UniProtKB/TrEMBL annotation:
<dbReference type="InterPro" id="IPR042855">
    <property type="entry name" value="V_SNARE_CC"/>
</dbReference>
<feature type="region of interest" description="Disordered">
    <location>
        <begin position="558"/>
        <end position="580"/>
    </location>
</feature>
<dbReference type="GO" id="GO:0005886">
    <property type="term" value="C:plasma membrane"/>
</dbReference>
<keyword id="KW-0963">Cytoplasm</keyword>
<dbReference type="InterPro" id="IPR001680">
    <property type="entry name" value="WD40_rpt"/>
</dbReference>
<keyword id="KW-0472">Membrane</keyword>
<dbReference type="GO" id="GO:0019905">
    <property type="term" value="F:syntaxin binding"/>
</dbReference>
<dbReference type="InterPro" id="IPR015943">
    <property type="entry name" value="WD40/YVTN_repeat-like_dom_sf"/>
</dbReference>
<dbReference type="GO" id="GO:0045159">
    <property type="term" value="F:myosin II binding"/>
</dbReference>
<protein>
    <recommendedName>
        <fullName>Syntaxin-binding protein 5-like</fullName>
    </recommendedName>
</protein>
<feature type="region of interest" description="Disordered">
    <location>
        <begin position="658"/>
        <end position="693"/>
    </location>
</feature>
<dbReference type="InterPro" id="IPR036322">
    <property type="entry name" value="WD40_repeat_dom_sf"/>
</dbReference>
<keyword id="KW-0677">Repeat</keyword>
<dbReference type="GO" id="GO:0031201">
    <property type="term" value="C:SNARE complex"/>
</dbReference>
<comment type="similarity">
    <text>Belongs to the WD repeat L(2)GL family.</text>
</comment>
<dbReference type="InterPro" id="IPR000664">
    <property type="entry name" value="Lethal2_giant"/>
</dbReference>
<dbReference type="InterPro" id="IPR013577">
    <property type="entry name" value="LLGL2"/>
</dbReference>
Length: 1082
């Protein structure tokens, strides 16, 4: 047994409090936890699964609600705001409080929410949830504070907008319908007050019953028995007639004082058949009737109503102007539409000027004042999902000349015609006062093989340039079961910002494109590559950290081929016609407009009759003139100058004799399906996708394969004994291995174009737990080492077509001299110049000191989940490691010490929508991108891109960047009625709603609805925005709270005094009991 002495204890205490000696290479880190904060900034794209739309006619802003509870509010270009409801709810209806800076949303859980728009981030200030009845339709008259609510039971309730308290005034369905009616009229589908008499409320029931209710006398003045089920109604501005739309595609016009039968019945799109009867038509879901001051007849606008025959299946909006009928065909189903008018007053000539049509996948605004009804050009990018987004790249703080270059070539090809020449009518709001000082670019890859380049520097996304890569390939023939629905879909994008070279990967092909401002005719070369991986049934599962194998140097192979004893058959075929591939490049010259031109295409070939594995990683280095890509089977390295394959190996062959796994080579064609699952597999909590730690993300089922997950070109140390850095390629695999490949480049100039690049594994292997996701390098001072790249230089069209080998050699020599000097084995780098290699896997991160290859720092990022995206980024003139975990968390670690700086949950607000859209967490993980300066983005839905920031500095300045939704302005005056119109046509009715619906009406039924108070009613909001009145309101509220607290304090003091008196009496009784007793009597 160990003996503890006083001297030993003191020595241990001294050693515990003494500070460790500082290393001379210790780096002072400047990033702290307070520098990080997660915040959503801007959302781009079209709202996913829209359900409702509304427009404020005075503020000129538009609101769109969605099935997931999202609320998108847009104004002029640059004014865009997004907010979301709590819980799993859909927005069924939106009602603006016109020119009040507020709106009401009606949700699918029978709740009403009042939103305050007088702040840059709208918030809910009141909520009211109905508990006994389902809400079906709501109506809010202009400049009224009383909201009419129709329910599924056929009743109509009223709510005060300022206090969100139910009124005692109720219109019961059994009092509204005729006494002779024996059936229930159905839910309320429409509510509206008479434009000239607000005391008359028109109530429409689903069965077709329509009632004109007198609010003062509380009786039904007229009942209109419509023949078909009712969908909607619309008033004429004079208040004498209204129009109904029905489920059989008919429109009926009624006179208010003639309830017996409609004055007009028409089937706008009904065709008379051979039997003399009209063909059946689709329901007219909504109709609107707008008057024109200078026209004899108004405009009748409706959606639906087309015949059921084949020609009438296209969704459409119909505009009827007198005897003229115009059908506007839409590309998607119509969700709802709103007619924009010059005046908000319903009893005036509306003079409509536009129709906002909300489609299932688009937003269309039609110009009603121009012949032919053209559409307005939408300044917002609502077509991100024109073809489904399959890949995304984000570059913040990119070179300033990049956006003008993309815009210049994009403007030549984007010829837009047929749009209205008038300005965008949704013009409300005001821009923010500040913007980011650096350019930002987003590149989206799509299922049809196209790429779109976007300017994301401001609140509004602007398309710069579009590239269609499908033009490079022949149309695939549908043969067998291996045919892919989207064979040209973009899977990965890699852009070199300095040289403007871009490589793009599909499932089994890689394209290298170069930027050119001139047109040219190109015959695209094709390089066919075959990569073979020997599958093994009994592969060891790396559940624990393997001891690193011996780092003895493998004999450098001077040619492409297998290394070691593994029998991996690899081949490089160029221009061979007998190789089977999933895509084929078009032969012959083809004209390409200014922009990105294809340089060559690499295509993976079938192996033993089986299709090749999907490409999982991609990298490019314009300074080395090399490109590399990996798939589920192995790796290929391509010389982009000589257009040749330098190396194509199966992953086991990269290890050579140091393979940590026991592999038994077997032919994949004779192999039974693999059913072995690693014991380290797990399912992530809170996400809808599971993944094996040792599998690639693109092929979850092949758990026994070792895919190439990460590729990084760098000038670094390849072995422990190296005194100098040299060009190399770091290869990360799905089983946690990092293998270093040495690149021996010929001297620049003629020799680089004629002599081969020598590629050989170095023998250096690092091992981590989980698939490798990111690798980067820091110098000895902790500064990020950027990858080497050439500067882009424009070439004329003639040079691009007719450069000879000598001219290309001269050009390459000039570029090499002008570019930044690369650290090579022949340079005079001293031994004191060290590097840190940052390696991040799905589970952990390590910082390796090079060339000693010792682990300087390490950390476990997650235990129960796995990292899906990781990146070393620049923030506040320093660097850190950012990672996004599958459970929705974002983490930041300092470099090189890997101290935790941030650990927050990003997708907590997505938990409520996973029940109806299970692909959201996977979609976020698939498209998440970290970039520099504190920016990141991801696809939050198939149609929307969400930008976020992890910088506290940007979060603090976000309000200045966002636009204002509400601008104080005067409400248009009410129309003045002429003397003769008032004399012969009746005066405009007046209604004291406060007297009718206020406290005098009594209290609402208990338990009908639950009021959830917010920060105050509309009166409180107005008081806040009106200077002294707002101060007085706040002071009055504070005094009331202070009085309540003082009253509570008095009660507590009295209670404490009573308790003290009771305690004193009890103590006195105890004292008297034991007063005369001796000590031995106790």
């Amino acid at each position: 047994m160990k003996r503890f002495t006083l001297k030993g204890v003191l020595d241990n205490l001294r050693s515990s409090v003494s500070t460790a000696p500082k290393s001379e290479n210790e780096i002072e880190e400047s990033l702290l936890s307070q520098h990080f904060q997660i915040c959503k900034t801007v959302r781009y794209g079209f709202p996913f699964q829209p359900t409702a739309v509304a427009f404020d006619p005075v503020q000129h802003i538009l609101a769109i609600g969605t099935k997931s509870g999202s609320l998108r509010i847009i104004g002029q270009s640059g004014v865009d705001c997004q907010c979301v409801h709590d819980g799993d709810v859909a927005v069924n209806q939106i009602l603006f409080l016109a020119n009040e800076g507020a709106l009401v949303t009606v949700c699918s859980d029978d709740s009403l929410h009042l939103w305050n728009l007088r702040q840059k981030r709208p918030e809910i200030v009141h909520s009211l949830k109905f508990q006994r009845e389902r809400i079906t339709y709501c109506h809010l008259p202009f400049q009224s504070k009383w909201l009419y609510i129709g329910t599924e039971r056929g009743n109509v309730h009223l709510v005060n907008i300022e206090s969100f308290i139910l009124s005692g005034y109720v219109i019961n369905w059994n009092k509204a319908i005729e006494l002779s009616r024996k059936t229930h009229p159905g839910p309320v589908v429409h509510l509206s007050d008479n434009p000239v008499d607000p005391g008359k409320l028109l109530i429409g029931f689903e069965s077709g019953a329509v009632v004109l209710w007198d609010l003062k006398t509380k009786v039904a003045e007229f009942r209109y028995p419509t023949p078909e089920a009712l969908r909607s109604t619309a008033w004429h501005h004079e208040g004498k007639q209204f129009m109904c739309s029905h489920s059989d595609g008919s429109l009926t016009t009624w006179s208010c004082k003639i309830p017996q039968k409609p004055t007009n019945v028409m089937l706008p799109h009904g065709k008379i058949g051979k039997d003399g009867k009209p063909d059946p038509c689709k329901p007219i879901s909504k109709v609107d009737w707008k008057s024109i001051r200078n026209g004899t007849e108004g405009l009748i606008i409706f959606s639906g109503g087309m015949s059921y025959d084949r020609a009438g299946r296209t969704p459409c909006i119909t505009v009827m102007n007198g005897k003229s009928t115009t059908v506007l065909e839409m590309e998607h189903n119509v969700v709802d539409f709103v007619v924009l008018c010059e005046t908000p007053w319903a009893n005036d000539f509306q003079d409509p000027y536009a129709i906002v049509v909300l489609l299932q996948n688009d937003l269309v605004v039609v110009d009603l004042t121009t012949p032919g009804y053209p559409c307005f050009e939408n300044p917002y990018p609502m077509d991100i999902h024109e073809s489904p987004v399959t890949a995304c790249q984000y570059y913040a703080d990119c070179p300033p000349d990049l956006i003008p270059a993309f815009y210049s070539v994009g403007s030549k090809t984007q010829k837009k015609s047929g749009f209205s020449e008038k300005p965008w009518p949704i013009k409300g709001g005001e821009w923010g006062t500040t913007t980011c000082s650096y350019p930002e670019i987003i590149i989206t890859g799509h299922a049809d093989g196209s790429l779109k380049f976007w300017d994301a520097s401001a609140v509004t996304l602007q398309v710069l340039y579009k590239l269609k890569t499908a033009k490079m390939f022949e149309r695939p023939k549908r043969t067998g079961d291996v045919q892919d629905e989207d064979p040209f879909a973009i899977q990965m994008i890699y852009l070199c910002l300095e040289s403007r070279m871009m490589c793009v990967a599909g499932a089994t092909h890689v394209m290298l494109c170069k930027f050119c401002k001139q047109e040219s005719t190109i015959d695209i070369p094709m390089i066919e590559v075959s990569i073979v991986y020997e599958i093994n049934d009994e592969i060891d599962s790396p559940d624990c950290d393997y001891p690193r194998p011996s780092l003895s140097v493998v004999a450098a192979s001077q040619q492409s081929g297998s290394v070691g004893s593994h029998s991996s058959s690899t081949s490089d075929t160029k221009g061979s016609s007998d190789q089977q591939t999933l895509v084929r490049v078009k032969g012959g010259g083809r004209k390409w407009c200014a922009g990105y031109h294809p340089d060559f295409v690499c295509v993976l070939t079938f192996v033993d009759g089986e299709p090749p594995g999907s490409i999982t990683s991609l990298s490019l280095n314009s300074s080395y003139g090399l490109m590399s890509f990996g798939n589920e089977s192995g790796i290929a390295i391509i010389d982009i100058l000589q257009k040749s394959c330098l190396l194509n190996l199966g992953t086991p062959d990269l290890y050579g004799s140091m393979d940590p796994y026991q592999r038994a080579p077997r032919s994949p064609r004779n192999k039974a399906p693999n059913t072995i699952i690693n014991s380290d597999d797990y399912r992530n909590d809170g996400s809808s996708f599971s993944r094996s730690r040792s599998s690639s993300m693109s092929s979850i089922e092949n758990v026994s394969k070792e895919a190439i997950q990460c590729l990084v070109f760098a000038d670094s140390y390849t072995r422990k004994t190296d005194n100098f850095t040299c060009p190399c390629l770091y290869v990360g695999t799905s089983l946690g291995s990092v293998i270093v490949i040495v690149l021996n480049l010929p001297p620049p100039g003629d020799q680089r174009l004629t002599q081969p690049v020598i590629v050989s594994p170095s023998g250096t292997i690092f091992r981590l737990k989980g698939a490798i996701l990111a690798m980067s390098f820091l110098d000895c001072n902790g500064v990020l080492i950027p990858s080497q790249s050439e500067q882009w230089k424009e070439t004329s069209g003639k040079e691009a077509r007719e450069l000879t080998r000598d001219e290309r050699a001269l050009k390459f020599r000039q570029m090499s001299v002008s570019s930044k000097q690369r650290i090579s084995p022949t340079s005079s780098t001293e031994m004191s110049d060290r590097q840190f290699g940052i390696i991040c896997s799905e589970k952990q991160a390590r910082v390796m000191s090079l060339p000693s290859q010792t682990c300087a720092y390490k950390t476990q990022i997650t235990e129960t989940s796995f990292v899906v995206r990781a990146e070393v980024v620049s923030v506040r003139e320093s660097v850190c490691l950012m990672s996004y975990v599958a459970n929705g968390r974002i983490m930041a670690h300092s470099l090189p010490s890997l101290k935790p700086l941030l650990h927050v949950c990003l997708l907590s607000y997505y938990n409520h929508i996973t029940c109806y859209l299970s692909c959201i967490p996977y979609l976020v993980a698939r498209t998440f991108c970290f970039s520099n300066s504190g920016h990141a983005l991801y696809l939050c839905s198939p149609t929307e891109i969400q930008k976020i920031t992890y910088s506290s500095e940007i979060c603090e300045n976000l309000n200045e960047m966002l636009g204002d939704l509400f601008l104080p302005c005067e409400t248009p005056e009410a129309p003045k009625q002429s003397f003769f119109k008032n004399l012969f046509g009746g005066t405009t009715g007046t209604l004291d709603r406060e007297e009718l619906f206020g406290e005098a009406s009594g209290k609402a039924s208990k338990g009908l609805a639950k009021h959830i108070p917010g920060s105050g009613g509309m009166a409180h909001l107005k008081a806040e925005s009106q200077g002294i009145a707002g101060d007085l309101a706040r002071t009055r509220l504070a005094l009331n709270e202070r009085g309540e607290r003082i009253g509570e304090l008095d009660d507590r003091s009295a209670q404490m005094m009573a308790q003290a008196e009771s305690f004193a009496q009890a103590a006195h009784q105890v004292m008297m009991k034991y007063k005369d007793k001796k000590w031995y009597q106790f």
